Amino acid sequence: MLEVIKEETQHPDNEDYGMHVTVLMSHGAHGVLYGTDIKPVKLLDVFDLLSSDNFKSMDGKPKVVIVVACRSAATDALIERVEAESGEISTCRNGVPSTLSHLLFFSSNVDCLNII
């Protein structure tokens, strides 16, 4: 999943567009989606790839991310342990998060299942 998103951010045609929309539909848990290989993909990693730091042709342009997935708390303990072990660091420029231009839509609330 991350490789596909990274490839998309590298397309030179993106400079011609005024915004970018990413739709992710998958199984998920709190803070993660599961790829076709059933390995968890952290949403923070997805947002990092779409940040202005990594998606240069969309710097300063709106990026809409629509996530259609469960956000169940059933795996929160595992996810929290993975996040703690990974030592994730938020990226900021001049005190402003590089993901500030993201507009996020989730099809379910935290601790809720998504019925499609």
Automatic annotation (TrEMBL):
Coiled coil regions, renumbered to chain: none
Domain Caspase family p20: residue ranges: 1-74
GO molecular function list: cysteine-type endopeptidase activity
GO BP term (any one): proteolysis
GO-annotated cellular components: cytoplasm
Pfam families: Peptidase_C14
InterPro entries with a match to the protein in the record: Caspase-like_dom_sf, Pept_C14, Pept_C14_caspase, Pept_C14_p20
Protein name listed in UniProt: CASP2
